[in-house]
Amino acid sequence: MEPSALQKSMNMAMSRFREESEEEDMPRKKKKVDWFLLLTDDIVVEILKKLPSSVLRYRGKYVCKRWFNLITNQILLDHSSFIIQRSSGLHRARHIVVREVKQKLEFEETYLEIPCRGRIKSWCNEFLLMVDPKRNETLYVYDLLTKKGFNLPQCSRSCGGHYTSKCCISLCYDGILRLYKVIHMFMGSRIRCQILVLLSDVVSIISNFPKWKRIKVPSNMGEGQYYWGDPVSVQGRYLHWDVHSSDYLVSMDSVQERFYETRLPGSNDERMRNQYSFVEMNGFLALLDKVSGNKANLWILKDFHKMKWEKLHSLNLSCHWYLSIYPQTDIPFPISSVVNKRHIIFKKPTRPRTVNGLLRYDLETNVVEGVPCTMSTGYNDRYVVQSVAPDLLW
Questions:
Q1: How far apart are CA 49 and CA 29, in angstroms?
Q2: HEC states along 60-116?
Q3: I want to staple 118 with a disulfide (CB 3.0 to 4.6 A). Which of 131, 148, 194, 203 is the partner?
């Protein structure tokens, strides 16, 4: 005899009741709680600030996406990182980290122990690009994170050597394809460019054996200038060369592998007089133009492809300290680094075979001050500023 509908409903209800009772009697599993997720961003930032700058820059920001955004956009934004390298001898290098703490600058200095004693040519993310003098000027890449390095395949030697004034080399990062690129520009009868593509895991180059490829350079670039100097790298992507023009810079988008003439700021009636210098400034190209004996304008290239400039500040050069070290006919100063769009770090000019010092200019107060004496530098020492790609990981 088949059970009635009422009996079926009662049996289902009793079965469900027994299952729920058994579940309540079973011991509850302990859930893992990520306590950092319960903290606000402000609290996490204050905790992360306790870590050394090297840990934040090379390890901490790769823990997770949240840490990457907080460290990159709220902590390292107020940091500047550059390397001072001796121009002769063993080419010893010092890593300088500058950070703003309560509207004052703090300097952290460490010596770099690098197997290669060659000249550092470029610094992108955690990688240094150097010239190895012991291997016939072979290019050498060193990872500051893993402390490992290796030599790159031989490039064209038509430049006459990587120490000559007709050769410039830079390391860039393609955030779209997740690739590193070595840009080799050299001047002969005409301007030439070679690019070596590396995987984001640069060490894999050992097994992939990449080859250099040629990139066409417009014949009118640089108006026949045969010495451009080292380029300024911005966001690990854009390269800018001073071609001694009062109208434009030569620029390159390493992702698109294209060259551009970047027009200089100002109107046609106020053209540059070749008394300018420029440098990377918190992800932008900054240009310092001396317009008179006691005034210089600081410009920011807000949009690379639209060539849109914005005047950020006018510097007062009438300070007695400035006038005592810079003749009124000189370019204001060779900038080495900047911090948080407020402080400019530059080197004090002195005569050859003497000891230099670093100075800082506060854009808000127009005050020039010296930095700790341990930051002394030689007359021909090189300054290499780190270029960071904002989309390195995410």
A1: 35
A2: HHHCCHHHHHHHHHHHHHHEEEEEEECCCCCCCEEEEEEEEECCEEEEEEEEECCCC
A3: 131
Query: At 154, which amino acid appears?
Result: Q
Please write the tens of the pLDDT for every residue from 80-94: 788 888 876 667 888
| Edge-to-edge strands, sheet with 79-85 | 104-112, 93-101, 79-85, 382-385
User: Look-up: residue for tokens 């395949």?
Assistant: 153
- DSSP, res 247: S
Cβ–Cβ < 8 Å for 276, 284: no
Q: What is the largest CA-CA distance in the chain?
A: 114
Prediction pTM value = 0.79
For residues 289 and 299, the answer to whether their CB atoms sit within 8 Å is yes
Instruction: Identify whether the C-beta of residue 187 lies closer than 8 Å to the C-beta of residue 166.
Output: yes
Give the pLDDT confidence of 33-49 residue by residue, as tens digits: 677 777 888 888 888 88
Confirm if 312 and 305 have CB atoms less than 8 A apart: no
Which DSSP symbol is given to 10?
H
Place of tokens 């703090």: 106
Q: How far apart are CA 246 and CA 63, in angstroms?
A: 46
**C-alpha span between 53 and 145 (Å, rounded):** 13
Q: CB neighbours (10 Å) of residue 92? A: 14
